[in-house]
Amino acid sequence: MPYRPPHAHTHRLPRHPDLPPPSGPTGDLRLLRTAYRWQRRVATLTALGYFTLFLLLSAFAPALMNRSVTGGLSSGLLIGLLQLPVTCLALILYERTARRRVDPLAHRLRRIGGRR
């Protein structure tokens, strides 16, 4: 198999806010892809990270999960019940990042595309 040199990461954007963003439709498309990728990662890692933590605690810390918090409510049940609010938080983060980062870029690209 022939040797392939590693690709230069020219598609990645600088993470420094003081640098000017790439200009033109190609730069805007790259910014849009990056913003959308960030949006997906934040929401997914929020929900899946919490659920994975719950599963790991259930498997490896049963004594912690069986501790009584109040009355008949165990800490494992409480953590499980908190999954719904955490999922709602992930949805809120998804919507917030869409409004702040993805939507403005998409609107700017639509305006640029309409001028041609």
Automatic annotation (TrEMBL):
Transmembrane segments: 42-61, 73-94
Superkingdom assignment: Bacteria
Protein name according to UniProt: DUF485 domain-containing protein
Stretches for region Disordered: 1-26
The organism of origin for this protein: Streptomyces tabacisoli
Pfam families cross-referenced by the UniProt entry: DUF485
Stored InterPro entries: DUF485
Keywords of this entry: Membrane, Transmembrane, Transmembrane helix
Extent of Basic residues compositional bias: 1-14
Lineage of source species: Bacteria, Bacillati, Actinomycetota, Actinomycetes, Kitasatosporales
